[in-house]
Write a structure and sequence with these properties.
Layout: H1 2-15, H2 33-36, H3 40-49, E1 72-74, H4 82-86, H5 96-99, H6 102-120, H7 127-152, H8 176-190, H9 205-220, H10 230-244, H11 255-258, E2 269-273, H12 287-291, E3 302-304, H13 306-309, H14 345-350, E4 351-352, E5 357-358, E6 361-362, E7 367-371, E8 380-385, E9 405-406, E10 427-431, H15 432-445, H16 449-461, H17 476-490, H18 497-504, H19 507-510, E11 516-522, E12 528-536, H20 556-561
Parallel strand pairs: 7-11
Antiparallel strand pairs: 1-3, 2-10, 4-9, 5-6, 7-8, 11-12
Helix pairs in contact: 1-3, 3-7, 6-7, 7-8, 7-9, 8-9, 9-10, 9-15, 10-15, 15-16, 15-17
Family: Belongs to the SusD family.
Subcellular location: Cell outer membrane
InterPro entries: SusD-like_N, SusD_RagB_dom, TPR-like_helical_dom_sf
Protein backbone atom coordinates (compact mmCIF):
# COMPACT_ATOMS: atom_id res chain seq x y z
CA UNK A 1 0.00 0.00 0.00
CA UNK A 2 2.90 2.40 0.66
CA UNK A 3 3.64 2.46 -3.07
CA UNK A 4 0.11 3.66 -3.75
CA UNK A 5 0.53 6.55 -1.37
CA UNK A 6 3.90 7.49 -2.82
CA UNK A 7 2.31 7.77 -6.25
CA UNK A 8 -0.51 9.91 -4.90
CA UNK A 9 1.88 12.10 -2.99
CA UNK A 10 3.97 12.62 -6.09
CA UNK A 11 0.85 13.75 -7.92
CA UNK A 12 -0.05 15.97 -5.02
CA UNK A 13 3.28 17.76 -4.90
CA UNK A 14 2.99 18.76 -8.54
CA UNK A 15 -0.70 19.66 -8.38
CA UNK A 16 -0.25 21.96 -5.42
CA UNK A 17 1.77 25.09 -5.03
CA UNK A 18 2.36 24.45 -1.36
CA UNK A 19 5.54 25.40 0.44
CA UNK A 20 8.55 23.89 -1.31
CA UNK A 21 10.10 23.28 2.13
CA UNK A 22 7.81 20.26 2.33
CA UNK A 23 9.98 18.59 -0.27
CA UNK A 24 13.01 18.99 1.97
CA UNK A 25 11.55 17.27 4.98
CA UNK A 26 12.73 13.81 4.04
CA UNK A 27 13.22 11.61 0.98
CA UNK A 28 10.02 10.54 -0.78
CA UNK A 29 10.80 6.88 -0.20
CA UNK A 30 10.76 7.56 3.54
CA UNK A 31 7.33 9.20 3.63
CA UNK A 32 4.70 7.10 5.38
CA UNK A 33 1.01 7.48 6.06
CA UNK A 34 1.86 8.75 9.51
CA UNK A 35 4.02 11.51 8.06
CA UNK A 36 1.34 12.57 5.62
CA UNK A 37 -1.46 12.99 8.12
CA UNK A 38 0.68 14.72 10.74
CA UNK A 39 2.36 17.32 8.54
CA UNK A 40 0.25 20.20 7.23
CA UNK A 41 2.29 20.58 4.03
CA UNK A 42 2.09 16.91 3.16
CA UNK A 43 -1.60 16.89 4.05
CA UNK A 44 -2.18 19.87 1.76
CA UNK A 45 -0.54 17.93 -1.04
CA UNK A 46 -2.69 14.89 -0.33
CA UNK A 47 -5.93 16.88 -0.36
CA UNK A 48 -4.95 18.71 -3.55
CA UNK A 49 -4.22 15.36 -5.18
CA UNK A 50 -7.82 14.39 -4.49
CA UNK A 51 -8.98 16.67 -7.31
CA UNK A 52 -7.10 14.59 -9.90
CA UNK A 53 -10.16 12.38 -10.52
CA UNK A 54 -12.50 15.22 -11.47
CA UNK A 55 -14.06 14.86 -14.94
CA UNK A 56 -11.37 15.49 -17.53
CA UNK A 57 -12.42 16.90 -20.90
CA UNK A 58 -9.89 14.85 -22.87
CA UNK A 59 -10.06 11.63 -20.91
CA UNK A 60 -13.76 11.18 -21.58
CA UNK A 61 -14.03 10.30 -25.26
CA UNK A 62 -11.24 12.65 -26.24
CA UNK A 63 -13.41 15.79 -26.20
CA UNK A 64 -15.87 15.23 -23.40
CA UNK A 65 -19.29 13.63 -23.65
CA UNK A 66 -20.64 15.98 -26.34
CA UNK A 67 -19.60 13.35 -28.90
CA UNK A 68 -22.27 11.04 -27.47
CA UNK A 69 -25.08 13.48 -28.27
CA UNK A 70 -27.08 14.88 -31.17
CA UNK A 71 -25.32 18.26 -31.21
CA UNK A 72 -22.13 17.19 -32.98
CA UNK A 73 -20.81 14.63 -35.42
CA UNK A 74 -17.72 12.56 -34.65
CA UNK A 75 -15.00 12.10 -37.23
CA UNK A 76 -13.59 8.78 -35.96
CA UNK A 77 -16.47 6.30 -36.22
CA UNK A 78 -14.47 3.49 -34.65
CA UNK A 79 -12.62 5.56 -32.06
CA UNK A 80 -13.10 6.02 -28.32
CA UNK A 81 -16.25 3.91 -28.07
CA UNK A 82 -18.46 6.55 -29.68
CA UNK A 83 -19.97 4.31 -32.36
CA UNK A 84 -20.76 1.60 -29.83
CA UNK A 85 -22.99 4.07 -28.01
CA UNK A 86 -24.60 6.10 -30.81
CA UNK A 87 -25.23 2.98 -32.90
CA UNK A 88 -26.59 1.02 -29.93
CA UNK A 89 -23.81 -1.58 -30.02
CA UNK A 90 -22.62 -1.09 -26.47
CA UNK A 91 -22.61 -4.10 -24.15
CA UNK A 92 -21.28 -4.90 -20.70
CA UNK A 93 -18.24 -6.50 -22.31
CA UNK A 94 -17.30 -3.51 -24.50
CA UNK A 95 -18.74 -0.62 -22.53
CA UNK A 96 -15.40 0.54 -21.21
CA UNK A 97 -14.57 1.82 -24.69
CA UNK A 98 -17.35 4.38 -24.22
CA UNK A 99 -17.10 5.08 -20.51
CA UNK A 100 -13.30 5.38 -20.69
CA UNK A 101 -12.67 3.79 -17.30
CA UNK A 102 -15.29 5.93 -15.57
CA UNK A 103 -16.22 3.28 -13.00
CA UNK A 104 -12.68 2.64 -11.83
CA UNK A 105 -11.74 6.27 -12.06
CA UNK A 106 -14.32 7.54 -9.61
CA UNK A 107 -13.95 4.62 -7.23
CA UNK A 108 -10.20 5.31 -7.22
CA UNK A 109 -11.02 8.88 -6.27
CA UNK A 110 -13.31 7.62 -3.53
CA UNK A 111 -10.58 5.38 -2.16
CA UNK A 112 -8.29 8.41 -1.94
CA UNK A 113 -10.98 10.35 -0.06
CA UNK A 114 -11.80 7.45 2.23
CA UNK A 115 -8.13 6.98 3.08
CA UNK A 116 -8.18 10.57 4.29
CA UNK A 117 -11.16 9.92 6.56
CA UNK A 118 -9.63 6.71 7.88
CA UNK A 119 -6.37 8.42 8.85
CA UNK A 120 -7.31 11.96 9.84
CA UNK A 121 -8.96 10.82 13.07
CA UNK A 122 -5.55 9.93 14.47
CA UNK A 123 -3.78 13.04 13.23
CA UNK A 124 -1.84 15.12 15.74
CA UNK A 125 -2.74 18.27 13.82
CA UNK A 126 -5.29 20.54 15.51
CA UNK A 127 -8.83 20.47 14.14
CA UNK A 128 -8.49 24.15 13.27
CA UNK A 129 -5.88 23.14 10.67
CA UNK A 130 -7.76 20.16 9.25
CA UNK A 131 -11.47 21.01 9.27
CA UNK A 132 -11.37 22.80 5.92
CA UNK A 133 -9.39 19.91 4.41
CA UNK A 134 -12.03 17.54 5.76
CA UNK A 135 -14.78 19.64 4.19
CA UNK A 136 -13.02 19.50 0.82
CA UNK A 137 -12.82 15.72 1.03
CA UNK A 138 -16.55 15.51 1.84
CA UNK A 139 -17.14 17.61 -1.28
CA UNK A 140 -14.98 15.34 -3.43
CA UNK A 141 -16.60 12.22 -2.03
CA UNK A 142 -19.97 13.70 -2.97
CA UNK A 143 -18.73 14.72 -6.43
CA UNK A 144 -17.42 11.27 -7.32
CA UNK A 145 -20.63 9.60 -6.16
CA UNK A 146 -22.58 12.11 -8.27
CA UNK A 147 -20.56 11.25 -11.36
CA UNK A 148 -21.16 7.54 -10.83
CA UNK A 149 -24.87 8.22 -10.33
CA UNK A 150 -25.10 10.21 -13.56
CA UNK A 151 -23.51 7.40 -15.61
CA UNK A 152 -24.91 4.28 -13.95
CA UNK A 153 -27.83 5.15 -11.67
CA UNK A 154 -27.73 3.49 -8.26
CA UNK A 155 -24.22 2.36 -7.32
CA UNK A 156 -22.55 0.99 -4.18
CA UNK A 157 -22.01 3.83 -1.74
CA UNK A 158 -18.36 3.84 -0.75
CA UNK A 159 -18.04 5.68 2.55
CA UNK A 160 -15.05 3.80 3.92
CA UNK A 161 -11.76 2.45 2.65
CA UNK A 162 -11.94 -1.23 1.81
CA UNK A 163 -8.84 -3.34 2.33
CA UNK A 164 -7.53 -6.10 0.12
CA UNK A 165 -7.54 -8.37 3.16
CA UNK A 166 -11.32 -8.19 3.43
CA UNK A 167 -13.02 -11.42 2.49
CA UNK A 168 -16.46 -10.24 1.42
CA UNK A 169 -16.62 -8.12 -1.73
CA UNK A 170 -20.17 -9.19 -2.56
CA UNK A 171 -21.42 -5.62 -2.46
CA UNK A 172 -24.87 -4.82 -3.89
CA UNK A 173 -25.89 -1.52 -5.42
CA UNK A 174 -27.57 1.17 -3.39
CA UNK A 175 -30.73 2.70 -4.82
CA UNK A 176 -30.74 6.04 -6.60
CA UNK A 177 -32.52 7.66 -3.67
CA UNK A 178 -29.93 6.30 -1.24
CA UNK A 179 -27.04 7.61 -3.33
CA UNK A 180 -28.70 11.02 -3.66
CA UNK A 181 -29.31 11.19 0.09
CA UNK A 182 -25.65 10.33 0.74
CA UNK A 183 -24.41 13.01 -1.67
CA UNK A 184 -26.65 15.65 -0.09
CA UNK A 185 -25.53 14.63 3.40
CA UNK A 186 -21.87 14.91 2.40
CA UNK A 187 -22.43 18.38 0.99
CA UNK A 188 -24.46 19.59 3.97
CA UNK A 189 -21.59 18.42 6.17
CA UNK A 190 -19.02 20.18 4.01
CA UNK A 191 -20.67 23.56 3.46
CA UNK A 192 -20.21 25.09 6.95
CA UNK A 193 -16.44 24.55 6.89
CA UNK A 194 -15.71 25.46 3.26
CA UNK A 195 -14.39 28.89 2.35
CA UNK A 196 -16.48 31.54 0.66
CA UNK A 197 -13.46 32.75 -1.29
CA UNK A 198 -11.62 29.54 -2.19
CA UNK A 199 -9.73 29.48 -5.50
CA UNK A 200 -11.97 28.56 -8.45
CA UNK A 201 -10.29 25.15 -8.73
CA UNK A 202 -10.96 24.24 -5.09
CA UNK A 203 -14.16 23.43 -3.26
CA UNK A 204 -15.99 26.45 -1.84
CA UNK A 205 -19.35 26.91 -0.15
CA UNK A 206 -20.82 27.93 -3.50
CA UNK A 207 -19.32 24.91 -5.29
CA UNK A 208 -20.87 22.56 -2.74
CA UNK A 209 -24.22 24.35 -3.04
CA UNK A 210 -23.97 24.05 -6.83
CA UNK A 211 -23.27 20.32 -6.71
CA UNK A 212 -26.22 19.88 -4.35
CA UNK A 213 -28.49 21.79 -6.73
CA UNK A 214 -27.44 19.77 -9.76
CA UNK A 215 -27.73 16.47 -7.87
CA UNK A 216 -31.26 17.22 -6.71
CA UNK A 217 -32.24 18.34 -10.23
CA UNK A 218 -31.08 15.01 -11.62
CA UNK A 219 -32.86 13.15 -8.82
CA UNK A 220 -36.13 14.89 -9.71
CA UNK A 221 -35.84 14.30 -13.46
CA UNK A 222 -37.90 11.66 -15.31
CA UNK A 223 -35.08 9.08 -15.45
CA UNK A 224 -34.76 8.89 -11.66
CA UNK A 225 -38.26 10.11 -10.75
CA UNK A 226 -40.69 8.12 -12.89
CA UNK A 227 -43.63 8.90 -10.59
CA UNK A 228 -42.95 12.65 -10.92
CA UNK A 229 -42.76 13.05 -7.14
CA UNK A 230 -43.32 16.78 -6.67
CA UNK A 231 -41.40 16.83 -3.39
CA UNK A 232 -38.24 16.04 -5.35
CA UNK A 233 -38.88 18.96 -7.68
CA UNK A 234 -39.46 21.23 -4.68
CA UNK A 235 -36.18 20.13 -3.10
CA UNK A 236 -34.39 20.77 -6.39
CA UNK A 237 -36.03 24.19 -6.70
CA UNK A 238 -34.90 25.25 -3.23
CA UNK A 239 -31.31 24.12 -3.78
CA UNK A 240 -30.94 25.68 -7.21
CA UNK A 241 -32.55 28.98 -6.21
CA UNK A 242 -30.04 29.23 -3.36
CA UNK A 243 -27.24 29.21 -5.94
CA UNK A 244 -29.15 31.49 -8.30
CA UNK A 245 -29.45 34.06 -5.52
CA UNK A 246 -25.71 34.16 -4.69
CA UNK A 247 -24.85 37.81 -5.31
CA UNK A 248 -21.10 37.17 -5.36
CA UNK A 249 -21.39 35.25 -8.67
CA UNK A 250 -22.96 37.56 -11.29
CA UNK A 251 -23.80 36.33 -14.76
CA UNK A 252 -21.15 37.39 -17.27
CA UNK A 253 -22.17 40.02 -19.83
CA UNK A 254 -19.82 38.82 -22.58
CA UNK A 255 -20.65 35.20 -23.39
CA UNK A 256 -17.49 34.43 -25.35
CA UNK A 257 -15.20 35.98 -22.74
CA UNK A 258 -16.45 33.68 -19.97
CA UNK A 259 -14.57 30.80 -21.58
CA UNK A 260 -11.32 32.63 -22.31
CA UNK A 261 -8.03 32.09 -20.53
CA UNK A 262 -7.67 34.57 -17.65
CA UNK A 263 -11.15 35.88 -18.38
CA UNK A 264 -12.07 39.18 -16.71
CA UNK A 265 -15.57 37.72 -16.37
CA UNK A 266 -14.58 34.76 -14.24
CA UNK A 267 -16.85 36.00 -11.43
CA UNK A 268 -19.56 33.90 -13.10
CA UNK A 269 -17.44 30.77 -12.65
CA UNK A 270 -18.16 28.91 -9.41
CA UNK A 271 -15.91 25.89 -9.82
CA UNK A 272 -13.49 24.80 -12.51
CA UNK A 273 -10.84 22.26 -13.25
CA UNK A 274 -7.68 24.05 -14.24
CA UNK A 275 -4.64 22.85 -16.16
CA UNK A 276 -1.22 24.37 -16.50
CA UNK A 277 2.12 23.62 -18.07
CA UNK A 278 3.53 21.97 -14.96
CA UNK A 279 0.66 19.56 -14.43
CA UNK A 280 -1.70 19.12 -17.35
CA UNK A 281 -3.01 15.82 -15.95
CA UNK A 282 -3.85 14.47 -19.38
CA UNK A 283 -6.34 17.04 -20.43
CA UNK A 284 -7.04 20.11 -22.51
CA UNK A 285 -3.64 20.62 -24.15
CA UNK A 286 -4.82 19.69 -27.65
CA UNK A 287 -8.19 21.40 -27.58
CA UNK A 288 -7.36 23.86 -30.39
CA UNK A 289 -6.10 21.09 -32.64
CA UNK A 290 -9.08 18.86 -31.99
CA UNK A 291 -11.77 21.48 -32.58
CA UNK A 292 -10.49 23.93 -35.19
CA UNK A 293 -10.96 23.69 -38.99
CA UNK A 294 -8.27 22.00 -41.04
CA UNK A 295 -7.30 25.31 -42.65
CA UNK A 296 -6.10 26.41 -39.23
CA UNK A 297 -4.13 23.17 -38.75
CA UNK A 298 -6.99 21.64 -36.79
CA UNK A 299 -8.67 18.27 -37.08
CA UNK A 300 -12.34 19.22 -36.47
CA UNK A 301 -12.76 15.90 -34.69
CA UNK A 302 -16.23 16.93 -33.63
CA UNK A 303 -18.34 19.30 -35.69
CA UNK A 304 -21.71 20.90 -34.92
CA UNK A 305 -24.60 19.44 -36.87
CA UNK A 306 -27.07 21.51 -38.86
CA UNK A 307 -29.74 20.23 -36.49
CA UNK A 308 -27.92 21.97 -33.64
CA UNK A 309 -27.25 25.11 -35.67
CA UNK A 310 -31.01 25.31 -36.23
CA UNK A 311 -31.48 25.60 -32.45
CA UNK A 312 -29.88 29.05 -32.53
CA UNK A 313 -32.71 31.51 -33.02
CA UNK A 314 -32.64 34.62 -35.14
CA UNK A 315 -32.43 37.89 -33.24
CA UNK A 316 -36.21 38.30 -33.45
CA UNK A 317 -36.58 35.24 -31.21
CA UNK A 318 -37.79 32.86 -33.92
CA UNK A 319 -36.31 29.53 -34.99
CA UNK A 320 -34.69 29.78 -38.44
CA UNK A 321 -36.14 26.55 -39.82
CA UNK A 322 -39.38 24.63 -39.56
CA UNK A 323 -39.39 21.20 -37.95
CA UNK A 324 -38.22 19.46 -41.15
CA UNK A 325 -34.88 21.25 -40.86
CA UNK A 326 -34.82 22.40 -44.49
CA UNK A 327 -37.77 24.78 -44.86
CA UNK A 328 -37.11 28.36 -43.71
CA UNK A 329 -39.44 29.62 -41.00
CA UNK A 330 -41.63 32.24 -42.72
CA UNK A 331 -42.19 33.98 -39.38
CA UNK A 332 -38.49 34.68 -38.83
CA UNK A 333 -36.01 37.07 -40.41
CA UNK A 334 -33.83 34.11 -41.41
CA UNK A 335 -32.32 34.30 -44.89
CA UNK A 336 -31.25 30.80 -46.03
CA UNK A 337 -28.67 32.31 -48.40
CA UNK A 338 -27.23 34.56 -45.67
CA UNK A 339 -27.85 32.08 -42.88
CA UNK A 340 -25.49 33.45 -40.25
CA UNK A 341 -26.76 37.01 -40.18
CA UNK A 342 -29.12 38.11 -37.41
CA UNK A 343 -28.43 35.09 -35.19
CA UNK A 344 -28.29 34.67 -31.42
CA UNK A 345 -24.93 36.16 -30.28
CA UNK A 346 -24.08 32.85 -28.61
CA UNK A 347 -23.94 31.30 -32.08
CA UNK A 348 -21.18 33.68 -33.14
CA UNK A 349 -19.36 33.11 -29.84
CA UNK A 350 -19.39 29.30 -30.12
CA UNK A 351 -19.42 28.26 -33.78
CA UNK A 352 -16.94 28.59 -36.66
CA UNK A 353 -18.87 28.93 -39.93
CA UNK A 354 -18.34 29.91 -43.54
CA UNK A 355 -17.53 33.60 -43.89
CA UNK A 356 -16.75 34.17 -40.22
CA UNK A 357 -13.74 36.45 -39.78
CA UNK A 358 -11.58 34.48 -37.40
CA UNK A 359 -7.88 34.67 -36.63
CA UNK A 360 -7.20 37.17 -39.39
CA UNK A 361 -9.17 35.74 -42.32
CA UNK A 362 -12.57 34.55 -43.45
CA UNK A 363 -13.41 30.89 -42.88
CA UNK A 364 -13.88 29.11 -46.23
CA UNK A 365 -16.15 26.07 -46.24
CA UNK A 366 -17.29 26.42 -49.84
CA UNK A 367 -16.66 24.20 -52.86
CA UNK A 368 -16.02 26.12 -56.10
CA UNK A 369 -17.95 25.40 -59.27
CA UNK A 370 -18.02 26.90 -62.72
CA UNK A 371 -21.25 27.01 -64.72
CA UNK A 372 -21.24 25.11 -68.02
CA UNK A 373 -21.02 27.39 -71.02
CA UNK A 374 -24.22 26.03 -72.59
CA UNK A 375 -26.25 27.50 -69.75
CA UNK A 376 -27.94 24.23 -68.84
CA UNK A 377 -28.96 24.48 -65.15
CA UNK A 378 -26.96 22.15 -62.94
CA UNK A 379 -24.37 21.50 -65.64
CA UNK A 380 -21.24 22.51 -63.78
CA UNK A 381 -17.81 21.26 -62.83
CA UNK A 382 -16.09 21.33 -59.43
CA UNK A 383 -12.93 23.40 -59.76
CA UNK A 384 -11.65 23.69 -56.21
CA UNK A 385 -12.65 24.78 -52.76
CA UNK A 386 -11.98 26.93 -49.75
CA UNK A 387 -9.05 26.78 -47.36
CA UNK A 388 -11.10 24.79 -44.83
CA UNK A 389 -12.23 22.03 -47.19
CA UNK A 390 -10.36 19.03 -48.58
CA UNK A 391 -8.99 21.44 -51.20
CA UNK A 392 -7.13 23.36 -48.50
CA UNK A 393 -3.36 23.33 -48.30
CA UNK A 394 -3.17 22.70 -44.53
CA UNK A 395 -4.40 19.35 -43.18
CA UNK A 396 -6.29 18.73 -46.41
CA UNK A 397 -7.38 15.30 -45.16
CA UNK A 398 -9.09 16.70 -42.05
CA UNK A 399 -12.07 18.82 -43.15
CA UNK A 400 -15.17 19.16 -41.00
CA UNK A 401 -17.91 16.60 -41.61
CA UNK A 402 -20.58 19.31 -41.49
CA UNK A 403 -18.86 22.52 -42.65
CA UNK A 404 -18.96 23.86 -39.11
CA UNK A 405 -16.40 23.82 -36.31
CA UNK A 406 -16.19 24.96 -32.69
CA UNK A 407 -14.52 28.02 -31.21
CA UNK A 408 -15.98 27.85 -27.69
CA UNK A 409 -13.44 26.78 -25.04
CA UNK A 410 -10.50 27.21 -27.43
CA UNK A 411 -7.73 29.79 -27.24
CA UNK A 412 -7.45 31.79 -30.49
CA UNK A 413 -4.41 33.63 -29.14
CA UNK A 414 -2.50 30.38 -29.70
CA UNK A 415 -2.04 28.23 -32.79
CA UNK A 416 -3.46 24.77 -33.24
CA UNK A 417 -0.09 23.06 -32.97
CA UNK A 418 1.62 25.49 -30.59
CA UNK A 419 3.83 24.13 -27.85
CA UNK A 420 2.01 23.58 -24.56
CA UNK A 421 1.08 27.05 -23.26
CA UNK A 422 1.63 28.12 -19.69
CA UNK A 423 -2.09 28.08 -18.95
CA UNK A 424 -5.22 26.73 -20.59
CA UNK A 425 -8.75 28.02 -20.87
CA UNK A 426 -10.72 26.87 -17.81
CA UNK A 427 -12.66 23.60 -17.83
CA UNK A 428 -15.76 24.98 -16.15
CA UNK A 429 -17.74 22.61 -13.93
CA UNK A 430 -20.24 25.08 -12.42
CA UNK A 431 -21.14 28.61 -13.46
CA UNK A 432 -23.93 30.89 -12.34
CA UNK A 433 -26.11 30.81 -15.46
CA UNK A 434 -26.66 27.05 -15.18
CA UNK A 435 -28.63 27.58 -11.99
CA UNK A 436 -31.09 30.01 -13.53
CA UNK A 437 -31.79 27.27 -16.06
CA UNK A 438 -31.91 24.54 -13.41
CA UNK A 439 -34.39 26.60 -11.41
CA UNK A 440 -36.48 27.25 -14.52
CA UNK A 441 -36.69 23.51 -15.13
CA UNK A 442 -37.96 22.85 -11.62
CA UNK A 443 -40.66 25.47 -12.09
CA UNK A 444 -41.81 23.96 -15.38
CA UNK A 445 -42.28 20.59 -13.73
CA UNK A 446 -44.00 22.22 -10.74
CA UNK A 447 -46.42 24.00 -13.05
CA UNK A 448 -45.15 27.50 -12.29
CA UNK A 449 -44.68 28.58 -15.89
CA UNK A 450 -44.47 32.33 -15.26
CA UNK A 451 -41.65 31.75 -12.77
CA UNK A 452 -39.90 29.45 -15.25
CA UNK A 453 -40.15 31.98 -18.08
CA UNK A 454 -38.79 34.72 -15.83
CA UNK A 455 -35.66 32.67 -15.05
CA UNK A 456 -35.10 31.70 -18.70
CA UNK A 457 -35.65 35.26 -19.87
CA UNK A 458 -33.12 36.57 -17.36
CA UNK A 459 -30.55 34.37 -19.11
CA UNK A 460 -31.66 35.57 -22.54
CA UNK A 461 -31.87 39.26 -21.62
CA UNK A 462 -28.44 39.68 -20.04
CA UNK A 463 -25.96 42.05 -21.63
CA UNK A 464 -24.07 40.46 -24.48
CA UNK A 465 -26.94 38.11 -25.35
CA UNK A 466 -29.95 40.44 -25.52
CA UNK A 467 -32.35 37.89 -27.00
CA UNK A 468 -36.11 38.59 -26.89
CA UNK A 469 -38.08 37.02 -24.04
CA UNK A 470 -39.99 33.80 -24.49
CA UNK A 471 -43.57 35.09 -24.76
CA UNK A 472 -46.34 34.16 -22.33
CA UNK A 473 -48.13 32.36 -25.16
CA UNK A 474 -45.45 29.62 -25.11
CA UNK A 475 -46.80 27.12 -22.60
CA UNK A 476 -46.92 23.42 -21.74
CA UNK A 477 -44.80 21.11 -23.87
CA UNK A 478 -43.79 24.04 -26.09
CA UNK A 479 -42.29 25.82 -23.09
CA UNK A 480 -40.42 22.67 -22.08
CA UNK A 481 -38.97 22.32 -25.59
CA UNK A 482 -38.01 26.01 -25.64
CA UNK A 483 -36.25 25.51 -22.31
CA UNK A 484 -34.43 22.43 -23.58
CA UNK A 485 -33.20 24.35 -26.64
CA UNK A 486 -32.09 27.24 -24.45
CA UNK A 487 -30.10 24.87 -22.29
CA UNK A 488 -28.46 23.22 -25.33
CA UNK A 489 -27.40 26.60 -26.72
CA UNK A 490 -26.25 28.18 -23.46
CA UNK A 491 -24.37 25.16 -22.08
CA UNK A 492 -22.94 23.76 -25.33
CA UNK A 493 -19.59 22.01 -24.82
CA UNK A 494 -19.87 22.19 -21.03
CA UNK A 495 -20.71 18.52 -20.46
CA UNK A 496 -24.48 18.78 -19.93
CA UNK A 497 -26.20 17.50 -23.08
CA UNK A 498 -25.28 13.82 -22.64
CA UNK A 499 -26.81 13.78 -19.17
CA UNK A 500 -29.77 15.95 -20.18
CA UNK A 501 -30.82 13.65 -23.02
CA UNK A 502 -30.80 10.68 -20.69
CA UNK A 503 -32.41 12.24 -17.62
CA UNK A 504 -35.20 13.76 -19.74
CA UNK A 505 -35.57 10.40 -21.55
CA UNK A 506 -35.63 12.06 -25.00
CA UNK A 507 -33.07 9.79 -26.67
CA UNK A 508 -35.66 8.28 -28.99
CA UNK A 509 -36.55 11.78 -30.23
CA UNK A 510 -33.08 13.18 -30.88
CA UNK A 511 -30.50 10.40 -31.12
CA UNK A 512 -31.57 7.64 -33.47
CA UNK A 513 -31.54 9.66 -36.68
CA UNK A 514 -29.06 10.76 -39.35
CA UNK A 515 -27.05 13.96 -38.95
CA UNK A 516 -26.55 16.65 -41.56
CA UNK A 517 -24.30 19.59 -42.27
CA UNK A 518 -24.62 22.30 -44.90
CA UNK A 519 -23.43 22.26 -48.53
CA UNK A 520 -21.97 25.55 -49.76
CA UNK A 521 -21.32 26.07 -53.47
CA UNK A 522 -19.36 29.01 -54.84
CA UNK A 523 -19.90 29.70 -58.53
CA UNK A 524 -17.62 31.48 -60.96
CA UNK A 525 -19.45 34.78 -60.48
CA UNK A 526 -18.76 34.61 -56.72
CA UNK A 527 -22.30 33.63 -55.80
CA UNK A 528 -22.66 31.37 -52.76
CA UNK A 529 -25.50 28.86 -52.64
CA UNK A 530 -26.36 27.15 -49.33
CA UNK A 531 -28.19 23.82 -49.47
CA UNK A 532 -29.85 22.11 -46.51
CA UNK A 533 -30.71 18.46 -46.08
CA UNK A 534 -28.14 17.38 -48.66
CA UNK A 535 -24.88 17.02 -46.71
CA UNK A 536 -25.39 13.75 -44.86
CA UNK A 537 -22.71 12.76 -42.37
CA UNK A 538 -22.15 9.24 -43.75
CA UNK A 539 -21.51 7.47 -40.46
CA UNK A 540 -24.67 8.94 -38.92
CA UNK A 541 -26.94 6.92 -41.21
CA UNK A 542 -26.70 3.95 -38.83
CA UNK A 543 -27.28 5.82 -35.58
CA UNK A 544 -29.79 3.99 -33.41
CA UNK A 545 -31.36 4.34 -30.01
CA UNK A 546 -32.55 1.93 -27.34
CA UNK A 547 -33.69 2.96 -23.87
CA UNK A 548 -31.02 0.75 -22.34
CA UNK A 549 -28.68 3.62 -23.30
CA UNK A 550 -30.28 5.78 -20.60
CA UNK A 551 -27.76 4.16 -18.26
CA UNK A 552 -24.32 2.84 -19.10
CA UNK A 553 -23.26 -0.76 -18.41
CA UNK A 554 -21.35 -1.48 -15.24
CA UNK A 555 -18.10 -3.18 -16.28
CA UNK A 556 -18.67 -6.91 -16.53
CA UNK A 557 -15.55 -7.55 -14.46
CA UNK A 558 -17.07 -5.59 -11.56
CA UNK A 559 -20.26 -7.64 -11.67
CA UNK A 560 -18.24 -10.86 -11.56
CA UNK A 561 -16.02 -9.56 -8.76
CA UNK A 562 -19.08 -9.27 -6.52
CA UNK A 563 -20.26 -12.80 -7.39
CA UNK A 564 -23.20 -11.15 -9.15
CA UNK A 565 -24.33 -9.43 -5.95
CA UNK A 566 -24.22 -6.23 -7.97
CA UNK A 567 -27.04 -6.17 -10.52
CA UNK A 568 -26.30 -5.05 -14.09
CA UNK A 569 -28.27 -2.20 -15.65
CA UNK A 570 -31.29 -3.17 -17.81
CA UNK A 571 -30.58 -4.31 -21.35
CA UNK A 572 -26.99 -5.41 -20.78
Amino acid sequence: MKKVYLILLTIGFFVTSCNEDALDLQPLDAISETNVFNDVNLLTAYVNAGYAWLPNINRENRIGTEVLTDLVSWKLPNGHGVAEYVENRIEATNGEGTTRGTWNRYYDGLRHANTYFAKIENSSLPVSETEEFTAQMHFLRAYYHFELLSWYGGVPIMDRRMEISEENFDIPRNSVDEVVAFIVSELDTAIPNLKDDAPKARASKAAAMALKGRTLLYAASPLFNPSNDQSKWNAAATANKAVMDLSSYPMGDDYAAIFEKNSPLDDEIIFTREYNQEVNQGGWSGINTMLWPNGYAGWALIAPTQEFINMYETTDGELPMLADGVTPNPNSIFDPQNPYENRDPRFHASIIYNGKVWKGREVEYFIEYTDDGNGVPGSREQTGGGLDTHHGVVNAHEPSKTNYAISKNTDPSQGATVEIPTEYTPDIKFRKTEFYLNYAETQIFLGNEDEARAAINTVRARNGVNMPPIPNTVTGSDLLKAYQRERAVELFMEGHRFNDIRRWKIGSEVMGKPQYGVDIEKHSDGTLVYSYGTKLVPESAIRAWDDKLLLLPIPDSEIKATNNAMEQNPGY
